[in-house]
Amino acid sequence: MILALVGNQNCGKTTLFNALTGSKQHVGNFPGVTVEQKVGTVKKTKNGSDIKIVDLPGIYSLSPYTNEEIVSRDYIFNEKPDGIINIVDASNIERNLYLSLQLIELGFPMVIALNMMDEVESNGGSINTKKLSELIGVPVVPISAAKGEGIEELKNVFIKTVETRTTPKIVDFCTGEVHRAVHALMHMIEDHAQVAQISRRFAATKLIEGDESMAQKLNLSDNEIETIEHTLIELEKEAGLDAQAAIADMRYLFIQDVVEKTVKKQSDSKQHLISVSIDKVLTHKYFGLPIFFLIMGLVFYLTFDLIGGNLTSLFEVGIDFGINFIRSHMESFGMNPVVTGLVCDGALAGVGSIISFLPTIIVLFLFLSLLEDSGYMARVAYVMDKLLRKIGLSGKSFVPILVGFGCTVPAVLATRTLSSDRDRRMTIMLLPFMSCTAKLPIYGFMASIFFPKYVGLITLSLYFLGMFLAILLALILKNTVYKGKSVPFVMELPNYRLPSFKTTMFLLYEKAKDFVVRAFTIIFVASVIIWFLQNFDIRFNVVSNTENGMLASIAKFIAPVFEPIGFGSWQAVTALVSGFMAKEAVVSILEVLTSKGTPITSLFSNASAYAFLVFTLLYTPCVASTAAIRREFGSKTKGTLVAVGQSVYAWVIAFIIYRLILLFI
Questions:
Q1: Less CB within 10 Å around the terminal CB: N or C of the chain?
Q2: pLDDT digit string (tens) for 585-614?
Q3: Could you give the CA distance from residue 436 to residue 215 in angstroms, rounded to a whole number?
């Protein structure tokens, strides 16, 4: 048994999914958090079977205009779930019911989960759910997904509804000229709809809305299409509106009538009034952007200097003590020096160099999570719209860009929320220039060695440099490859909310776990391999000088390419190559390669160290990110060209910055 969970963006859909299935998907206080379908299981119905719940991207309509609407609609049409759970935000019921009416027309067994009822009641409002259910023809269950209220009742209702195959009561809410057009088309396409296994009423309304994909699904003849066009001309003449507006007007008139009969209006909530007051400052025309930069500056100061930096220093002391402790015991035991070197200088040094940055990662994600869950990041997207529009994008592109500061892979997936294919591809091109968490260890490692007094400032400069260079690239793309205008930006601003302690702690746990797992898998393997290649020659003899190892012999062929930008050593090149696998590996490999007497300060000057950081900021992202980009572009060739182009762009920018530093300092 499979149920689709469908609802508007930011209505609590993922929270309900977690409550029903026991999953722990990330919940954010801004629209577009869910960008692909997620599957969970509700255990044991009365007949002993499990129910699968599919969490679909948030949508406002079943018209296939945006990518998330296409994902949701195609799933319902192609997979044909056994039923639908439509989650409705009770505090915005008029808007949410527009999607509900379209879902009802599909004819699937359906239940409405009326979410956030606790907020409605706390603000003096009420909803007669029994009357609402009678008027729209489907069961309505009041719930509060965040508090876990009404979840068991909802389970019982949708299990009964689906097991008995109870479809929505036919509510003929169309009137006048729209009624005539809808019913005329329903009769004409009845046999086609039956073959396509689509509700004839839903198909008829979609044809009136000008949905070309529906006409293709129904396989209509030229004569039938011509008849439909004549019907629409008559409808528009009688209604005085275009056909699509006439259908929307019909739905909203019905919704208005239903709401008048069932809903006692709530007063403006305290949260909303407070949000409006705060927004007068945070979304101010002139002060909004400077305030954002000040907030982010404070976040980086706390992360890299005051809190995260000090905790990382303590971790480094502990890790060094642990490695030396293991080394001394292995040596006193008489362990072979090669094995001791493999364990201590290879595996432990590589993994330890990454693990030491765990506190910094956790502190940064703590602050970003608080900003996101409070609702502030949705405001930043609004504030950034004017700036992004000048480079050919809209404020909605800021959401995947924000996600890109965590990891490029989900950021690439988040571009599916962009309705324009042009905007989506342009945004994907910019995402690798955002400083994901995998790059943070590189920044911290290099800055603490070459710029120990300015670690936070150096890191902040790289973040803003990445954004500036992304803007520069966007301007180039806007006037060359991706000419045209960005789509209009519409985004719901949620009320400010206190972040959930449970949600925040879970997110930090997941990020920490992912970081540690990568350290003990990818980084561990890479460190061991690099140590082996460094210490053995082509005949597998141990070398006394790493310059004679296999690794040095291979890397020296590539090294001359990087000499003009200040880091032409084979060690630096090897670290960069390993970064294609995982960016964190750059640090672990440098640690391994400099553990046998070659100090890292001999490989870089201050100028070349900063140029190295710039290159790692900009060059081709890790394998997983590259694969995601190729998949979203739908072409291996284009994906490869993007990857190569990023490395060339990184080299050029690093060269310019390196030469400027030498010139002026």
A1: C
A2: 888 888 888 866 678 888 899 999 999 999
A3: 44
How do beta strands 2-7 and 140-142 pair? unpaired
Q: Say which amino acid occupies 244.
A: Q
Provide the sign of the torsion angle of the four alpha carbons 545, 549, 555, 560, taken in this order. positive
- Pick the closest to residue 469 from 391, 523, 532 (CA basis): 391
Residue 55: count of CB within 10 angstroms of its CB: 26
Mean pLDDT of 13-31: 68
Nearest to 56 by CA among 81, 89, 24: 81
Cβ atoms within 10 Å of 44's Cβ, excluding its own: 11
Amino acid at 398: F
Nearest to 139 by CA among 93, 202, 84, 73: 84
Nearest-Å Rg of the Cα atoms of the chain is: 29
| CA-to-CA separations, 126 to 99, 222, 663, in angstroms, rounded | 21, 51, 70
What does the angle CA 618 – CA 622 – CA 625 come to, to the nearest 5 degrees? 95
Helix, strand, coil percent content, the chain, rounded in steps of 5: 65, 5, 25
C-alpha 240 chain-centroid distance: 42
**CA 305 vs CA 301, 302, 339, 450, 458: distances in Å:** 5, 6, 37, 15, 11
Q: Are 394 and 489 in contact (CB under 8 A)?
A: yes
b/e for 423-458, b at 16 or more Cβ within 10 A? bbbbbbbbbbbbbbbbbbbbbbbbbbbbbeeebbbb
3-state SS class at 327: helix
Among 346, 418, 360, 375, smallest CA distance to 589 is for 346
Is residue 288 a contact partner of residue 434, using CB atoms and an 8 Å limit? no
Which three-class secondary structure string do you get for 85-128? EEEEEHHHHHHHHHHHHHHHHHCCCEEEEEECHHHHHHCCCEEC
Are 530 and 592 a contacting pair, CB within 8 Å?
Answer: yes
For residue 649, give the 3-state DSSP assignment. helix
> Burial level of 129, CB count in 10 A (0-12/13-18/19+)?
middle
What pLDDT shows up at residue 486? 66
Residues with Cβ within 8 Å of residue 171, at least 6 apart in sequence: 104, 135, 136, 137
pLDDT tens profile 268-310: 667 778 888 888 888 888 888 888 888 888 887 887 777 877 8
**Which of 338, 402, 387, 365 lies closest to 549 in space, CA to CA?**
338
Beta strands 126-127 and 263-264, pairing class: antiparallel
Whether residue 116 contacts residue 79, with contact meaning beta carbons closer than 8 Å, is answered with no
Q: Are 87 and 11 in contact (CB under 8 A)?
A: yes
Q: Is the pLDDT of residue 242 over 80?
A: yes
254-269 confidence digits (pLDDT tens):
999 999 999 987 666 6
| Cα→Cα distances 215→181, 192, 398, Å | 16, 10, 35
What amino acid is encoded at 569 in this protein?
Answer: S
DSSP letters of 427-492? HHHHGGGS--GGGHHHHHHHHHHH-TT-HHHHHHHHHHHHHHHHHHHHHHHHTTTT-S-PPP----
Count of residues making up the chain: 665
* CA pair distance 285, 282, nearest whole angstrom: 9
Q: What residue spans of 110-175 are helical by DSSP H?
A: 117-122, 129-136, 151-163
